[in-house]
């Protein structure tokens, strides 16, 4: 496994993951570990947590994108994540609009500017 952070990982719904895979972010390492997880109604919060922990502990991932509605399933874990790398970004999905009041990055920015 590479020690450089050169990949983007994604945890999201089928449309989001498919779009990002079509854009070229997909990668499988030598151990057949993918850098993406497709979340559907049958995906348990435990599976999402396991993927989140796996992606945030990998040394080859620079950015972790997660649909905000998926992040809501593991919100305590997402809100306590404080590492610089991989950077954690919550993104909207086609069916779920973005809510800046739930986004940890936006909360920190507001706190920084005392808003």
UniProtKB/TrEMBL annotation:
Pfam families referenced in this protein's UniProt entry, alphabetically: ATP-synt_F
Keyword annotations from UniProtKB, A to Z: Hydrogen ion transport, Ion transport, Membrane, Transport, Vacuole
GO cellular component: fungal-type vacuole membrane; proton-transporting V-type ATPase, V1 domain
Topology with respect to the bilayer: Peripheral membrane protein
Family matches, as Gene3D superfamilies: ATPase, V1 complex, subunit F
Similarity remark: Belongs to the V-ATPase F subunit family.
Subunit structure of this chain's protein: V-ATPase is a heteromultimeric enzyme composed of a peripheral catalytic V1 complex (components A to H) attached to an integral membrane V0 proton pore complex (components: a, c, c', c'', d, e, f and VOA1).
Protein name: V-type proton ATPase subunit F
Species assigned in the record: Piptocephalis cylindrospora
């Amino acid at each position: 496994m590479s020690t450089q952070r050169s990949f983007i990982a994604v945890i999201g719904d089928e449309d989001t993951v498919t779009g990002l895979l079509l854009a070229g972010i997909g990668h499988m390492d030598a151990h057949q570990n993918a850098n993406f997880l497709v979340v559907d109604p049958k995906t348990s919060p435990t599976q999402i947590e396991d993927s989140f922990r796996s992606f945030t502990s990998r040394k080859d991932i620079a950015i972790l994108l997660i649909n905000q509605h998926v992040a809501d399933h593991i919100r305590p874990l997402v809100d306590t994540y404080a590492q610089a790398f991989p950077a954690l970004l919550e993104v909207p999905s086609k069916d779920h609009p973005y809510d800046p009041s739930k986004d940890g990055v936006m909360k920190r920015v507001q706190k920084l500017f005392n808003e």
